[in-house]
Amino acid sequence: MARGLFITGFTIASATSLDGFSASSNTIDADAFTIATGAPGTWSVQKTGNDLELVYTSSGLPDPYATWAGPGGFNLTGPDAAKGADPDGEGQDNLTEFALDGDPTNGALNAKVFLRTGVVTGQYSGEEVLILTIAVRDGTVFTSGTAVNAADGIEYIVEGGPDLVDWGDAIFPLPRCLL
Q1: If you write DSSP's letter for every residue of 32-78 in order, what string do you get?
Q2: 4 pLDDT band (50/70/90 cuts)?
Q3: Structural domain harbouring 53
């Protein structure tokens, strides 16, 4: 069964007569609607009696990034809505802020990445190590150092090692917590 949404009946014009109108002679740029709604799909114009209607047919579920960035999210528009844009100018692009729960409109609310040091047990027992805590998208599951959130299209890779050269050490993801 195809998933999607079919919306019809948005009257964009009404007249006593629409003689000579041909829906096939009209073209709609769907990109603007995809950005506005967060859902990919097709748009068409149809004549119903003396009304001219805009019809939308979804081709799938809303894009999580577009929903986060667009109306109902942070209301980014134009070039500011691009994944590589940095509308608040703090040095983190929108995709990083999306992946790590930042606010692209406020440079003081960066992506949530926390670093501290601590003494641990296990392989490095008694040694002080770096502890990295990051926010991730709902539904993300880590297996060793890699996590993929298929629904949101984000891949997280966390590597560990005793220096900045060798990255073969195991990392230990902790259970979900609230930041």
Answers
A1: HHHHHHS--EEEEEEEETTEEEEEEEE-SSPPHHHHHHSTTTT---G
A2: very low
A3: 6-58
